[in-house]
């Protein structure tokens, strides 16, 4: 759309809203005011000047009608470069607690296993479970939390089993006791 069209549309919308505000429809019932006799104007009327009319000049860039020269006072408007539209925003990558809920394939030095992170609360944490894990600490995972951009996996009693950060489409981090690398992918 052009700016001219937008300004005309904005003016029409403004005029419609002002007209609606001036309407008596929105006011509740009230007493009718009696007209007062002989109201005096607050200021004296000013004399009106004469009104003249002339044909409008063609818009900038348009040629005059055949056989007519454009008025000499009309200067051609400088051509404006058309701006390209802004680039599309980058794709939204889900982050946060809700983006890590679900089943994961965990891989560490002992092999791979399944870890499920639930959205069901368990005191101050969320429920988690592990199945088929060769690492005995990872096999004990029973809770998890998302804090400061990191996923914390917990064992019963509150011991932190691992800390992971989102990386690409998965989670990367390390086991707390051994420091061994741990990755989780969907």
Task: Explain what the structure shows.
An 8-stranded antiparallel β-barrel has the order 1-2-3-4-5-6-7-8. The mean pLDDT is 77. It has 3 helices and 8 strands. It has 186 residues and is of the alpha+beta class.
Morphology: elongated
Q: Structural class of the helix and strand makeup?
A: alpha+beta
Regions with pLDDT < 50 over 5+ consecutive residues?
Answer: none
Estimate the mean pLDDT confidence.
Answer: 77
Strand order of the largest sheet: 1-2-3-4-5-6-7-8
User: How many distinct helices?
Assistant: 3
Summarize the structure.
The chain has 186 residues and is of the alpha+beta class.
Notable characteristics:
8-stranded antiparallel β-barrel, 3 helices, alpha+beta, 186 residues
Describe the protein's topology.
Layout: H1 3-22, H2 97-100, E1 102-108, E2 111-122, E3 125-131, H3 136-139, E4 143-147, E5 150-154, E6 160-167, E7 170-175, E8 181-185
Antiparallel strand pairs: 1-2, 1-8, 2-3, 3-4, 4-5, 5-6, 6-7, 7-8
């Amino acid at each position: 759309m052009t700016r001219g069209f937008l300004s005309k549309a904005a003016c029409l919308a403004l005029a419609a809203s002002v007209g609606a505000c001036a309407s008596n429809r929105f006011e509740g019932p009230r007493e009718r005011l009696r007209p007062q006799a002989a109201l005096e104007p607050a200021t004296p009327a000013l004399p009106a000047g004469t009104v003249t009319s002339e044909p409008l000049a063609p818009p900038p860039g348009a040629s005059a009608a055949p056989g007519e020269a454009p008025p000499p006072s009309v200067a051609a408007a400088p051509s404006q470069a058309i701006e390209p539209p802004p680039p599309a925003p980058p794709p939204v990558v889900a982050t946060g607690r809700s983006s890590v809920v679900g089943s994961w394939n965990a891989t560490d030095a002992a092999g791979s296993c399944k870890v499920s992170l639930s959205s069901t609360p368990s005191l101050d944490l969320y429920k988690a479970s592990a199945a088929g894990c060769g690492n005995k600490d990872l096999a004990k995972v029973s809770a998890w939390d998302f804090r400061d951009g990191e996923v914390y996996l917990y064992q019963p009693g509150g011991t932190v089993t691992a800390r992971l950060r989102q990386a690409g489409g998965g989670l990367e981090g390390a086991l707390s006791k051994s420091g061994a690398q741990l990755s989780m992918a969907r």
